[in-house]
């Protein structure tokens, strides 16, 4: 078949992502920052004297919903660090599971390896 054959375009993505996995990914991408900021709040409030918080991050912020929030910027920065760490752990676990499922190292667009017959010469 020719290079510009329209039938080759149909085979470019033979698999589809199940909608359940999209929903789970959406829930995880919402839950991890919430868990991270809650953990940052608990850790900073429990260990105020033991953690060296810089003066620039010790601001108290007034909000209409939550009232006064002590160490607001410290909680935001620490929450972002925890969030990145949790996403990194989740990515590492996903990579291990993906490798254990027996997926091939070649994708659908990769060419098969070239098989060469090596002739042994008599010396």
Describe the structure.
The protein is mainly α. It has a domain at 19-55 and 71-100. It is built from 3 helices and 2 strands, in the order H-H-E-E-H. It has helices spanning 7-10, 19-46, 72-100, and strands at 61-63, 67-69. It has a two-stranded antiparallel ribbon. A hairpin with a 3-residue loop joins strand 1 (61-63) and strand 2 (67-69). The longest helix has 29 residues, at 72-100.
**Approximate helicity band:** 40-55%
Q: What's the count of strands?
A: 2
Cα(first) to Cα(last) distance is: 45 Å
String of helices and strands: HHEEH
Which strand-content bin applies to the residues?
A: under 5%
Structural class, please?
mainly alpha
Radius of gyration from CA coordinates: 26 Å
Overall morphology: elongated
Task: Average the pLDDT over all residues and give the rounded result.
Answer: 80
The low-confidence runs, each spanning 5 or more residues with pLDDT under 50, are none
